[in-house]
Amino acid sequence: MDTFLKEGRWSQALEQIKLWARLNSPWVIHFNSGSCNGCDIEILATLTPYYDVERFGIKLRGSPRHADVLICTGPVTRQARDRLRRIYEQMPDPKFVIAVGSCALSGGVFDGCYNVVGPIDAVIPVDVYVPGCPPRPEAIIDGVVQLLGKLQQGARP
Amino acid sequence: MSKEQFTIPIGPQHPALKEPGHFTLTVDGEVVTGASVRLGYAHRGIEKAVESRNWVQDLYLLERICGICSHIHATAYCLGVEKLAGVTAPPRAQAIRVLVAELERIHSHLLWLGVAAHQAGFDTLFMYSWRDRETVMEVLEQLTGNRVNYSANLLGGVKFDVDTRVLETILSGLDFLETRTHHYLDIVSGDRIFLQRTRGIGMMTSEQAERLGVTGPTARASGVRRDIRVDAPYAAYDRYPIQVVVETTGDLEARFIVRLKELLETYHLIRTLLDGLPEGDLKTRMPRRIAAGETISRVEAPRGELFYFIKSDGGDQPARIKVRTPTLSNMASVTQLAVGHQLADMPMLLTGIDPCFSCNDRLTTVQTSGESETWTWEKLRQYGIASYRERG
Question: Could you give the number of structural domains in chain B?
């Protein structure tokens, strides 16, 4: 037992357990920072029976304090900017961000509008980008799978 | 009764809705004594942005005001611009516009049914209605190639035709949805537990509805017979009339029943429309510059009356476009009706009007002096920056 603790194998095992849990139940929170709703309904569609991402252990939570993954839609408007940042800061570490839709990636059609700050990554760091206007539910699921793949390879944290 | 009042801030991020909106509720125990709403989290400045794009580009921008009712925004815009240019789209195009608008209404109402059921804690109904909604999404995808922003409209016509293969998908989809809608109608008017959350909650009399200026299914659930499709038929609605569904009770249950019965009307309308789809072209020529003038265009969106004011100064860009969406007219009813209800009823009450914040967040200035004033892009930008710095 002593050697087990000394060689740091205990913390290694703990890390593996944490990774296993993280890969199998990524809880998500969704924030719309100025989207047209198109991406939001497609995200909701992925959670409902036809696409059903709950089979991957993905669950939509109401509070940022319960969530591992922040799914963002829309360009960031001036009023939503501070709220987006605050929600990101309230999430416990390690946290990941998926930007969904053209507007979240680049501002989309709203790029240059006077009340738009810019894409999501102008405000918070983004891990996975899902393009499309709006992306199909399959694409959103693929985005989540890409994130899980990255985690499995030990990219982050 | 305690003297102390407790204020509950909700939002902009909250579990009840997909979209950002902020509500401040004052409560005494469990009873709400006051409610106020702060909007504008999704304000992007679209109305100003349309002035720096040309007529065709604006079609795609305006379609993205709202992802749920994108087609109806484009339809209102197209009808208005066509009126200004003195062009009429061919009958087949008008019929296809109505077809897509009604399919959109089906998807919007089923979406609403699910979200509203979710607010009541009835997740089974939420999951079932969203599963069935995929039927109409599939139809829309087969018809237009896209699930959400269909972009079916063109200035002067439509892009897509209805072929026999799509026709079969639509008809078999409608048969399935019709049986499901009857089933949902049984649930919302028969399930005792569900009725405890809806019957007698959020009562709005027809006088109140008139005074608060509510529109769409929310008004029709309070006995106000108002539907643009009948009162001022646009596109092809004069050839395919619908029956206006009206309920007189005015509570949440009535709002469920009105929307579901509207679905049945919609199925009927689509069947008659597909039976006698006029032959002919899909589009006519549109001038690149639109003659100077101004016009209004009114359509019935899934949530109520959608109003467009379009002004042209003869160029290839609009001079001004003003959009008034149904959510804004319905929002006042929520803050009014909230008082005296249980805190737990608030999410249901809010969803009862089917709010859509991306539609409704726009800038309004009230002038008292009566002098007209034009705001430039830069001035709006500076105004926005200063305003949010002040608010923090």
Answer: 1
Residue from the list B60, B66, B148 with its beta carbon closest to the beta carbon of A42: B148
Instruction: Answer yes or no: do B20 and A32 touch at CB < 8 A.
Output: yes
Q: Is B40 on the interface with A (CB under 8 A)?
A: yes
Give residue-wise pLDDT tens across range B32-72.
888 887 777 778 888 888 888 899 999 999 988 888 888 99
Does B368 map to a domain?
A: no
Closest CA to B325 of B299, B288, B293: B299
- Return the closest-CA partner of residue B45 out of B64, B59, B26: B64
Checking DSSP bridges between strand A76-77 and strand A59-60, what pairing results, if any?
Answer: unpaired
Sign of the C-alpha dihedral computed for residues B156, B160, B162 and B164 taken in this order: positive
Judged by a CB distance cut-off of 8 A, whether residue B53 touches chain A is: no
Q: Is B301 a domain residue?
A: yes
Structural domain including B79 reads 46-329
Smallest CA–CA distance from B66 into chain A, residue: A36
Q: Is residue B55 part of a domain?
A: yes
The answer to whether B302 and B108 have CB atoms below 8 angstroms apart is yes
For residue B145, which residues of chain A lie inside 8 Å, CB to CB? none
Q: What is the pLDDT of residue A157?
A: 47
What is the model's pLDDT at position B335?
80
Q: How far apart are CA B366 and CA B363, in angstroms?
A: 10
Contacts of B67 in chain A (CB under 8 A): 35-41, 134
User: Helix A137-152 crosses helix A9-24 at what angle (to 10 degrees)?
Assistant: 180
| Cα dihedral value B184, B188, B191, B193, nearest 10 | 130
Number of neighbours of residue B204 by Cβ within 10 angstroms: 27
Other CB atoms closer than 10 Å to residue B173's CB: what's the count?
Answer: 23
- The residues, any chain, with a CB within 8 Å of residue B150's CB and separated by 6 or more, are B70, B71, B100, B104, B140, B143, B144
What CATH number is associated with residue B125?
Answer: 1.10.645.10
Average pLDDT of span B202-225: 89
Written as six digits, the tokens of B58 are 């604006």
SS3 at position B374: coil
CATH number given to A28-152 = 3.40.50.12280
Both tokens of B2, joined, read: 């305690």
Q: How large is the ipTM?
A: 0.87
Please check the confidence at residue B371 and state whether its pLDDT lies above 50. yes
CA–CA separation, B170 vs B52, rounded Å? 39
Distance CA B340, CA B352 (A): 17
**In terms of CA atoms, which chain A residue is nearest residue B58?**
A109
Q: Which residues of B touch A55 (CB under 8 A)?
A: none
- What is the rounded end-to-end Cα distance, in angstroms, of chain B? 35
CA angle A75, A148, A59 (to 5 degrees): 70
- Both tokens of B275, joined, read 């039976």
Structural domain includes residue B267: yes
For residue B175, pLDDT beyond 80: yes
Residue A70's DSSP bridge partners are A29, A97
Can you tell me the distance from the alpha carbon of A28 to that of A127, in angstroms, rounded to the nearest whole number? 14
